[in-house]
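Pipeline run #58 for the internal structure catalog. This entry was flagged by the ingest filter as a single-chain record with no existing model, so it goes straight to prediction. Upstream metadata was stripped on purpose; only the residue string is passed forward. Reviewer on rotation: M.T. Logging verbosity set to normal.
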Amino acid sequence: MYYQKGGISSLDNPFENEKWIEFRNAMTPSVNDVLGLLQGRTESSIPSEEDIFEQIKMKSEDPVYKYLHSLDMETIKFIQTVMYIGRDYNENDNKTPEGIYNFQKEELDFIGWRSKSIEINQMLGQAPLYQYLINGLRIIQR
């Protein structure tokens, strides 16, 4: 199975999966855009209370935040799924890239999606987001 706008479709051959590759390639530029905006940022561990208030004040000016808010929810789900793959994937897993993506996406679907703002804040709270996205792209593009 693979995910697309409007639902899930099944595929006959996961190893010659043109629809999966087409889907992945269509969504990947958004991840690359986020990576470009994140490049060069330093990510600290846990912010202080003062940092949190400053972040809230500055959030509306943050180019990554603005860019993510310009995307539709399906693209946000894709980026967040790639992020979790990059964070949690076990290299000993023998699944195909499509299988890895579908497994992670199904877990997130089961937990449930909240509003776009909440999902964006969830992603931006992950450190190091840049590295998670790089790892996730590497895994789904192999």
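catalog note: The mean pLDDT is 79.
catalog note: The chain has seven helices and two strands.
status: ready for reviewer M.T.
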